[in-house]
Specification:
The structure is a homodimer of 210-residue chains. Chain A has 210 residues and is α+β, with helices and mostly antiparallel strands. Chain A is built from nine helices and five strands. The first copy, chain A, has two domains: 133 residues, NADH Oxidase, CATH 3.40.109; 36 residues.
Chain lengths: 210, 210
């Protein structure tokens, strides 16, 4: 991996407006992207999310009207709905600690120290829906970057009615809510946005050295 | 770039607790990472951020007490403070539109259509500090991923007193606030966290297929 390859992938990437509905991401590529979602870093490692991978055509068509009629959710190869917990409970923290013990072993004392620290943060109301959504955006940033490196197009989407998504996908009843969407697949040759120059502020306007 | 390389980088990555203060990221590598920050995707392309790259040792030591005494901010090679606008104004949107015209040309009519759409969203109060912070987390996710691919260690940090950072870095007066930190550099051989197995929920617990 060279620095140039990384920049080339980012310049190739754009928010895909028209996906080619006939093209499907190959299994091995998709498996790696799915694995990358699982490996996404999060605050304290708590992973306050579920990643819904929607391939069912009928279900996706049902989501279009609640996405400002943007067809990407239906025409992509794989639609990722990044859903998060509306509020992290002490039970969620305990589930993570159980998993931690499973993977790492570790003394009950060490785990109790961690529980006290993280539980303290949770008790202060810090682990809100907004906090959980921010974690989902880490997943979003990483996912789009890796997809671009593998030649897969994506489109980050905030323009959807979360309440409708939650209802249709049965998230509401589980204390989850759709945070952000990321359809993935292949750009359609007709997508005129693909060839537009990328608009970024000058480096000197966003980077400051101290 | 193969799917395996991507997963290997993610498994190599961890939240670095102890950086080696004697090691500096080479110029060409850092330049690419900085460029990747500039190229980060954001909602409507608005880039509601400033990335502060802090190398000054004295300034970094000054930040340690406001970071729960975590030394990563002082011992890393480059400290990135991801700062965002507390509220996006119509002037900010216009600055982006000016840049858009500079890069792409385009008719005033087309740009006015964009201004109306984005301005409408802004007028509804949607482009809050929380929204801007979420955009910064896209940058965070992408930055950590790319750093790992280039063999650079990072540590995402939410544990800091934003008010103090804003004051010390002069962000407050500019309508900016520190959203999240990401020190970058090289893990110290003594960091025992580097060798701990990564704790992630089972794939079947976070990925759902529909």
């Amino acid at each position: 991996m060279t620095p140039d390859q990384l920049i080339a992938a980012l310049n190739w990437r754009y928010a895909c407006k028209v996906f080619d509905p006939s093209r499907k991401i190959p299994g091995a590529t998709w498996a790696a992207l799915e694995e990358s979602l699982v490996l996404t870093p999060s605050s304290y490692g708590l992973q306050p999310w579920k990643f819904l991978i929607i391939e069912n055509r009928e279900l996706r068509e049902q989501l279009v009207p609640h996405t400002w009629r943007q067809r990407q959710v239906a025409d992509c190869s794989h639609l990722v709905v990044m859903a998060v917990k509306k509020a992290l409970s002490i039970e969620d923290i305990d589930a993570f600690i159980t998993r931690m013990a499973e993977v790492r072993g570790g003394t009950p004392e060490a785990l109790m120290g961690f529980r006290k620290m993280v539980g303290g943060t949770q008790a202060q109301g810090y682990m809100s829906k907004e906090w959980a959504k921010m974690q989902a955006y880490i997943a979003l940033g990483q996912f789009m970057a890796f997809a671009a490196l593998l030649g897969i197009d994506t489109c980050p989407m905030e323009g959807f009615v979360a309440e409708k998504y939650d209802e249709i996908l049965g998230l509401e009843a589980r204390g989850l809510t759709a945070a952000v969407l990321c359809p993935a697949g292949y750009r359609h040759p007709d997508d005129r946005y693909a060839v537009l120059p990328k608009v970024r502020f000058k480096s000197s306007d966003v980077i400051e050295h101290r």
